[in-house]
């Protein structure tokens, strides 16, 4: 039986698995049912299986031939704290939790690839199938690295994939460089002097200071960064006051910073501090900035991006099935932590037009099962291409 025949034979069962995972979503570091489903499936295939890596992570290892080369293929398993609004039979059975980002599809496609490669081990080396917890904001990739992922499972490179609504179903986007942005957070506390709203001269207005600071922050990207550098600085929260007739003594601003390089992150952080100090002096208030680094930017390495583009073209009908000049996303992805230690590449697989609310992090989202064979074939082709015999 050919590899394509094996993929077609697996498809109905993979759809059942994917929909079962969708119906039983689990949040970050609580993916116990999903992890056991993954581990049991890999064990049935005859793989060497390791549980509880980085929390609830699972790593399955498949060896073939005598080659010493090894690669990692990664899928994320966690869901989001969103109440699902779909009505199909496999909708979430867990209140306030759903697979709104397609990690159910990612997990299932990588299980399918493990099944196909186990049935057709015509490669020379080792494939580590990395099933990661807690991608959605909790840094499961960093947890796996800190738990010795690359020491316990040596690999020369690592690869990731994310479904992408808005990209035609089955088409790939491969970025030879930045693909996803960093995700930093900041909290700013402004301390003035409260007063009666009818007697503002007796106080120091924290709200006026906060408004001035919000306006000043908008100049960071346009006036302190090189125009060729991309960044986003957004104030997303402004909290102050509880009464109509009181000028509050405190105000709080919160927001996010997105960038494609650590140098830009550092420049933005320094600019935020400078503006806080300046507004504090100008308005006669005290301002404290707490800046917290989040996920680093996800930056693909060139050689790995090139081989991913070749593998994608082989399963997507040639070069037209692969976009290599797509704009990167200001969204963030903790796959970046792996790329701090190993070369690799993170690609997008088109999930279709995203109509009817079927977009990422939307309560109507559902992974497109029609692209599953493409994703499985891509993983298989990539592993065989890198670890080819001879």
Mean pLDDT across every amino acid position? 96
Distance between the termini: 22 Å
Pattern of helices and strands = HHEEEHEHHEEEEEHHEEEHEEHEEHEH
Q: Spell out the CATH superfamily of the largest domain.
A: Zn peptidases
Largest sheet strand order: 1-2-4-3-5-17-6-15
Kindly provide the name of the CATH class of the largest domain: Alpha Beta
Note poorly predicted spans: none
Helix content: 25-40%
Q: Quickly give the structural class.
A: alpha/beta
Task: Characterize the main sheet.
Answer: 8 strands, mixed
Instruction: Please indicate the count of domains.
Output: 2
Taking all Cα atoms into account, the compactness measure Rg is 24 Å
C-alpha geometry: elongated
Description:
- By secondary structure, the protein is of the alpha/beta class.
- The chain folds into two domains: 3-179 and 298-386, Aminopeptidase; 183-295, Alpha-Beta Plaits (2-Layer Sandwich).
- The protein is 35% helix and 27% strand.
- The protein is built from eleven helices and 17 strands.
- The chain has helices at residues 3-23, 32-44, 103-119, 140-146, 149-152, 206-217, 219-224, 262-283, 302-315, 336-339, 372-386, and strands at residues 48-53, 57-64, 70-76, 125-132, 157-165, 172-173, 178-181, 183-191, 195-196, 231-240, 246-247, 250-259, 286-295, 298-299, 322-323, 329-332, 344-352.
- The strands form four sheets. The chain has an eight-stranded mixed β-sheet with strand order 1-2-4-3-5-17-6-15, sandwiched between helices. It has a four-stranded antiparallel β-sheet with strand order 10-12-8-13. Strands 14-7-16 form a three-stranded mixed β-sheet.
- The model has no long low-confidence stretch (mean pLDDT 96).
